[in-house]
Specification:
The protein is 29% helix and 14% strand. With 203 residues, the chain is of the alpha/beta class. Helix 2 (43-53) links the parallel strand 1 (29-32) and strand 2 (60-65).
Length: 203
């Protein structure tokens, strides 16, 4: 029987796993790629990881784009299993007209966000996670609704891509990243014998 999945690791990481095993404390960051509805296939694994094995990890940075960002945002909620289930259901229930406008997409995205939040007005993130969402901002001809000129082989208004951009990454697209984090503050321990309360210096 074939393995359920294949683990790929560099020499140092592979040696660590062979000698020490893999523990939640070894995981510092989880990236989640874009991929449209294909990302839904990973939600059962997300539930097992974030609802169990990684539940009490010290701190994890979650990074995602597109469906990966939705998955990581749901996984960061106080009840990740329920939030991931709402994400899968809400994603499947999206409905668009034949030629959707930006407003149509915005309406569906807001509806999906409300579904993931489960009725909460604001995200309720666990204190041991940070979430970074990677998006792309359209520039030049790409930000004009209904324009097809942007998809020509060599747009006449194309700008050179930024330094270190991936090959064929158009200068008409600009990366954006948003970060949300809920850090746990250190507990204040009263020490009357030291003349202070709650960590404040004596007056």
């Amino acid at each position: 029987m074939s393995a359920s999945f294949t683990a790929l690791a560099g020499a140092r990481a592979a040696r660590h796993v062979r000698e020490e095993g893999l523990r939640p404390t070894d995981i510092a960051c989880i990236p989640a790629a874009a991929g449209g509805p294909k990302g839904l296939a990973l939600i059962p694994l997300d539930k097992r990881l974030f609802g169990g094995w990684l539940r009490d990890a010290p701190h994890i940075d979650l990074i995602g784009a597109s469906i990966g960002a939705w998955r990581m945002f749901a996984a960061a909620q106080l009840d990740p299993v329920a939030a991931l289930a709402r994400l899968a259901e809400g994603y499947i229930e999206q409905r668009y007209p034949r030629d959707p406008t930006p407003r149509d997409v915005s309406v569906e995205c807001r509806r999906l966000a409300r579904a993931v939040l489960g009725g909460e007005r604001m995200p309720r993130l666990r204190g041991n996670v940070g979430v970074s969402v990677i998006a792309t901002r359209a520039r030049g001809v790409l930000d004009r609704n209904g324009s097809r000129a942007a998809f020509a082989p060599v747009p006449s208004v194309a700008m050179p891509p930024a330094p270190f951009s991936p090959v064929k990454f158009s200068g008409l697209m600009e990366r954006e990243c948003a970060l949300e984090r809920r850090e746990r503050l250190p507990r204040c321990i009263p020490r009357p014998s030291k003349g202070d309360i709650g960590g404040l210096p004596p007056s």
